[in-house]
Amino acid sequence: MQESTPHKEPLITVVVPIYNEEKNVRPLLERLKNVFSTIGSPWEVVFTLDPSPDRTRETITECIAEGYPIRLVVFSRRIGKPLSVLAGLDHCRGEACVIMDSDLQDPPELIPEMLEKWREGYKVVIAQRRSRAGENYLYLKCAQFFYWLLEKISEVNVPRNTGDFRLLDARVVEEIRRYRERHAFMRGLTAAAGFRTALVPFDRSPRLTGRANISFTGAINIALDGIVPFSRTPLRIMFLLGGLLALIATAIFLAWLVNGLVKGYSNTWLVQLLCILLVGFSGLIVACLGVVGEYVVRAYEEARARPLYAVDEIIEADTLTHRISGPHAELSKGGGQP
Fold first, then answer.
1. Are the beta carbons of 220 and 147 closer than 8 angstroms?
2. Per-state percent for the chain, helix, strand, coil, to nearest 5
3. pTM
4. Calpha distance 172→150 (Å, rounded)
5. Which homologous superfamily is 12-231+308-333 in?
């Protein structure tokens, strides 16, 4: 994975999945430049761009022409943040990789502390949120419930109050690249890969500009991506519920039988009770089928083995320490020319 480098300091790659963020590109790059100028490490930014309706692509190419060490990977269609992050790791060339959002809620100024932990021997350094300013109260409560649930049922250890903001050693990046999962929940994949991990607490700032691109449906999808691939607990709960329903049905039958023998059989109470149970059990059966469907659909998607993403173009700055090699090398064009 890693080529030799003449620099004494290791090359650090910053992977930034981006969509519709033209106003945040320059502030992010300026703060990254200040951070890496202070610590004296060579650096590069890999922007993985979902095709955007605004001028995000044009703004990034302008920055490439100005000399920023950028590798811009543009997809042929919108693929979403999880796969964008995985694609960023595929195009990462650094000895360490920092994954962060483009809206500056993940402060670049935390990178030196993360690098310090990395130099101490930690292969994974995760930024853990102490507070989350400017976010919806209901959303925060749902996030807290999600992390509580994930902690209880997940087969891997995902720290609470963490996002994708993290530093990964090149060795960890190499391992995560092997997880070619369509629903790439990076927090779960990092935990599944293992390795020595450190947490760095920080206070998350509000977005610099604009609004979050994630919708309510998108948040639900991320929650399912975190639970379904990393836990069999929902299926086991359904098995237990099925057994419980069988016991309840048996108890109702016995109650009906005894009542009929003692007081004589009457259809009135039984019909009412059966109607209630029919509605309740039907809802439960549909919900259980939905859970099973999540597992079946995801298994089907993985079994098709389609490519995870298609790259439309790669644009690289001439200032990059390492240039792209591999299947997309012919798409690489330096100097900011598309």
1. no
2. 50, 15, 35
3. 0.66
4. 22
5. Spore Coat Polysaccharide Biosynthesis Protein SpsA; Chain A (3.90.550.10)
One-letter amino acid for residue 207 of the chain: R
Distances 161 to 18, 80, 109, 143, 202 between C-alpha atoms, Å: 22, 21, 19, 8, 10
Joined tokens for residue 99: 């994954």
Between CA 314 and CA 318, with CA 46 as vertex, the angle to 5 degrees is: 60
Hey, what are 115's tokens? 């690098």
Distance between CA atoms of 188 and 319, rounded to whole angstroms?
34
- Which pair of structure tokens corresponds to residue 33? 């430049």
Q: How many CB atoms lie within 10 A of CB 112?
A: 13
Sheet holding 311-316, edge to edge: 197-204, 124-132, 162-169, 96-99, 12-18, 43-49, 70-75, 311-316, 332-333
pLDDT in tens, 85-98: 889 998 988 899 99
C-alpha–C-alpha distance, residues 223 and 228, integer Å: 9
Taking the CB of residue 272, how many other CB atoms lie within 10 A of it?
A: 10
Where do the structural domains in the chain lie, given as residue ranges? Answer: 12-231+308-333, 233-304
* Arithmetic mean of pLDDT, 320-333: 53
Q: Which residues contact 151 (CB under 8 A, 6 or more apart)?
A: 158, 160
